[in-house]
Amino acid sequence: MATRPTIRDIREAAKRIQPWVHQTPVLTSSTLNDLCDAEIFFKCENFQRGGAFKIRGATNAVFSLEEEEAGKGVATHSSGNHAAALALAAGWRGIKAHVVMPENAPRVKKEAVAGYGAEITFCEPTLRGRETALAQVVNRTGARFIHPYNDTMVISGQGTAALELCEKVPDLDVVIVPVGGGGLLSGTAIAVSGATAAIPVFGAEPENADDAYRSLKAGKIIPSENPDTIADGLLTSLGDLTFPIIQALVRDIVRVSEEDILRAMRLIWERMKIIVEPSSAVPLGALLAHRKALPGHRVGIILSGGNVDLSTLPWERKNRMMQG
Amino acid sequence: MATRPTIRDIREAAKRIQPWVHQTPVLTSSTLNDLCDAEIFFKCENFQRGGAFKIRGATNAVFSLEEEEAGKGVATHSSGNHAAALALAAGWRGIKAHVVMPENAPRVKKEAVAGYGAEITFCEPTLRGRETALAQVVNRTGARFIHPYNDTMVISGQGTAALELCEKVPDLDVVIVPVGGGGLLSGTAIAVSGATAAIPVFGAEPENADDAYRSLKAGKIIPSENPDTIADGLLTSLGDLTFPIIQALVRDIVRVSEEDILRAMRLIWERMKIIVEPSSAVPLGALLAHRKALPGHRVGIILSGGNVDLSTLPWERKNRMMQG
Known about the structure:
The structure is a homodimer.
Chain A: H1 7-17, E1 26-27, H2 30-36, E2 39-44, H3 54-63, H4 67-71, E3 74-77, H5 81-93, E4 97-102, H6 107-115, E5 119-123, H7 127-141, E6 144-145, H8 152-168, E7 174-178, H9 183-195, E8 201-206, H10 211-218, H11 242-249, E9 252-256, H12 258-272, H13 282-289, E10 298-303, H14 314-323
């Protein structure tokens, strides 16, 4: 499956997932435009089913399986949005989803995945514990492993968000999306380069988890070491499928401080009246930090998701973290 | 000005304010539909300019003034969304806005009104202090007093939100909006009765500020006494212009407990990923409390605004209030 997807794969994904996922709206804010000296178009994947863009890739992967293979179910390891998305998509197809999660995953995440009907296997909170548990599940069930980002069908699905954005706002000057494992960024880069006149695509990455930035500079994958950022969807490192696509098609990676991520997230909540998770705010954080960089440009941003624990505010948690 | 507005006034208001206000989107949520056993269409005035529907009435009032009268400016007393809206609309027309506010108004509200360029006069936090200060401002400046809700042009402007909702979703079975002073509710009732086949309009009101409910039962205006609700936009009592419209055109007032308001607000934040102020959540609170009342109905709800202080979460504040 590790073939590099093309714009045609993304168009096929768009058709395949269309009955299941939302065509999310594109919102604008004159206040944020003024603050950034740009015209920003926010593609609101926080309104997507499951609360994040991840359902696009998961649905594309699940519904492109042959009948027989699908019958054995799907499996993944994730404590985040991909696991919930895979559970949801598997439910739509009527097949089983097996999710390996660390025992210490947040309760809300466990409940979300279980609520979508997945079978959860808990593992020790280490890479080795996770991989062992996943291998056991796959051996036992024959389920197909769907990687959170290093997968052709997942990347193709994630690219459909940018496809919709470019169709809705055809004359963008630049697109910026967050980068963690690179599924969204690589899919976006393929979609944008295929769908419009070539315009630059940037990744926005937390300074405190800047493996994509360092990997591009080094010309090889350099995994994250102890990444520590409020943008908890972006802790993962690039994969051997996403990295070369990003190398080939992405103009640059912009690193964003924790302070700018928090500031951007709070502005989105206060000014746009929408709830986004910290990872979603990283591209706007990049614009705020470099406001003279794209004067008057029409900038497309994908707000990747809105799954935050609302029992405390993100900036309060962060304050506590920083004090603690 | 105390003539009862008609559907024609609302249509004229829609044309008058069209260059200035947003046509806000209508959102849906399958989770909330399931929870309420209804099909709900949320008109998102939390995305409106100034963060609330109030800009509709204020803009209609400001732009319907004759040139000479407008030159003397406008004035109001309010510590909430109407004051900010009037300041914003006056700025668009290039005239002065004078706002009388109690000294103890929250800092964020003072800053919002001042930020929109209004001239603030502080008064003692009593009805008498407010009225005296307003009379002095009006005498000194000749400014036109624009009442927050008991005003023909304001009511006509507020009715444009329901007009847009009925145009976008023409086959609604019922419309529910929050009621405080009754500007939104009376405007909505006129718009709905004029725009569509007669469908019922309900007001939703906090139990702890149920003057509209009691006024309708009594057949005369019964002002609120010490209203105490988290829905701080709904503390005001009906006026002599809004009351008879509501009497004639509104099917009923549904009272909602503080618990149901909070529950509804949290569901909107968590499931729809949008930020609404407590007042906006009252209609959904009514549906949650009476989920068998409208089985399968297509229900239009106006989410009145999204101006909340994001330094603490509303449910945390409420917990503290209830403990305190």
